[in-house]
Amino acid sequence: MMSKTRIARRSVLALTILSMAMLISACSPLKMVNAIAPDDGIDAITGLAYGQNPRQKLDLYRPAQADGLLPTVLFLYGGSWKRGSRDSYAFVGRALARHGFLVAVADYRTYPDVTFPAFVHDGAMAVAWLYEHAPKHGGKSDGIHMIGHSAGAHIAALIAVQPEYLRAEGLSRDILGRWIGLAGPYAFYPSQVRSVRAIFEKTREDDARPVTQVVSGAPAALLLHGKDDRTVDPFNSDEMAASLRATGSEGHAHLYSGVGHATLVLSLAEPFTAIAPTLKDSVRFFKTGIKPGTQ
């Protein structure tokens, strides 16, 4: 078995190589991560439409050799509700699929084409599509898990805590499993963030703040955050966990030392898992409900 020291050195080396390759090729960092992350043993189906809009599509990942129906996971990426592409996050789909999940990586509509809450409704539509179609692709339709990073964590949070979004799709939150938020802006005030203010200005501000929208009966949540995050303050995860617990739901925030905003999601992929045990902790929580730091 590879020692922790060797794994850490391998991760640092991979980050160094990634940085050099980006400088040489002018490639985006996520394209480089996808090029480095292993894809053997994984089947992918891309470009499946869950709605009528061109942005309402998802890609599926699953282990090539799997018996029976697998737990289903929906991943929603970040990008300030303005940008992002599902193919850039193939490394997340592959990483989770390697651990025995059917993984959907979904696009959603973004600003300026739409404003809040259109992208949250898109996330709920993707969940509804999985509820209907996951069994055809080897996944379970009950207990659908969600994981999101940054803006994607914000979307996942609102779907999990506010029943109206799935209700609009004719479903209840009973179809959900657990959810994981990676560096989500759950407690921020949109009116105080100039770069995204226009995205939320047509709504009542608290409607866009997951910490104020928690309705009892929300699925269990694990909120992971890097202590060195300079984009979304870690207090967001602490506040969200407290709001969940205040309504009788299960919410646990866990912070990783020496981890920033982008490296948190990067740590889901080989060979970067030594940055933080994000992948291990996420897989264990989805499969067992056990949280980091607990037995």
Q: Would you give an account of this structure?
A:
The protein contains 10 helices and 8 strands. It is an alpha/beta fold. The chain has a single domain, classed as Alpha/Beta hydrolase fold, catalytic domain (Rossmann fold, 3-Layer(aba) Sandwich), CATH 3.40.50.1820. α8 links the parallel β7 (221-226) and β8 (251-256). The longest helix is centred in the N-terminal third of the chain and has 22 residues, at 4-25. The chain is globular and about 45 Å long.
What's the helix and strand layout?
Layout: H1 4-25, H2 29-36, E1 42-49, E2 57-63, E3 72-76, H3 90-97, E4 102-106, H4 118-133, E5 144-149, H5 151-161, H6 164-167, E6 176-182, H7 197-200, E7 221-226, H8 235-246, E8 251-256, H9 261-266, H10 278-288
Parallel strand pairs: 3-4, 3-5, 5-6, 6-7, 7-8
Antiparallel strand pairs: 1-2, 2-4
Helix pairs in contact: 4-5
- Mean pLDDT over all positions: 91
Strand-residue proportion: 15-25%
| Adjacency order of strands in the biggest sheet | 1-2-4-3-5-6-7-8
Count every beta strand, where a strand is a DSSP E run of 2 or more residues. 8
Instruction: Give the count of structural domains.
Output: 1
Secondary structure class reads alpha/beta
CATH superfamily: Alpha/Beta hydrolase fold, catalytic domain
Number of H/I helices: 10
CATH topology: Rossmann fold
Largest sheet: 8 strands, mixed
Distance between the termini: 23 Å
CATH class: Alpha Beta
Instruction: Specify the overall morphology.
Output: globular
Taking all Cα atoms into account, the compactness measure Rg is 18 Å
Low-confidence stretches: 16-26
